[in-house]
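Example with several molecule types.
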Amino acid sequence: KAGVTQTPRYLIKTRGQQVTLSCSPISGHRSVSWYQQTPGQGLQFLFEYFSETQRNKGNFPGRFSGRQFSNSRSEMNVSTLELGDSALYLCASSPDRPQETQYFGPGTRLLVL
Amino acid sequence: GENVEQHPSTLSVQEGDSAVIKCTYSDSASNYFPWYKQELGKGPQLIIDIRSNVGEKKDQRIAVTLNKTAKHFSLHITETQPEDSAVYFCAAITGGFKTIFGAGTRLFVKA
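Resulting structure tokens for the full complex:
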């Protein structure tokens, strides 16, 4: 089976812009979670989607949003980018609940200038 | 709030020695504890996990122990090899089904 794929792999944006990141889960996996990884804050949970519905949410401002499509592919959007949004954004998929094995993609590295 | 503490932040061992990384979690409702290895430029990869009804699990050179009473779990790597060098993260899935990660341990295995 193909692994989790994320596009794009690298992105450079300026403050105030918005960005959309994409994640394709492993075939058959219905749960997709998003994480932000930074040197200072580590790996932090953003949100989880299952069957096109946000099932869980971390403690991030409303500028961070996501959605999931009927084929389980997911996108996350960050509006009004700030310098502090520079990070590696990771997507992980699992068959159903996150208590099952989560498989991570390679991440999208976002740099906000 | 929910958190996972991980120690040490950096660990340097000689090839062939053992490495131990320890984590403590706060949510007593947590019942699933995965460990991930992250190499440079890659996403975290699951290396072993343990559920709350088990006290110990082993997979070749890697083992994990869990003490639910103390809310403490540990990763043990025996006969370390240079390719074990990476950042290791522990995690706990809370009762609210959120994955909370530890801060990570950078392991160096010296040849």
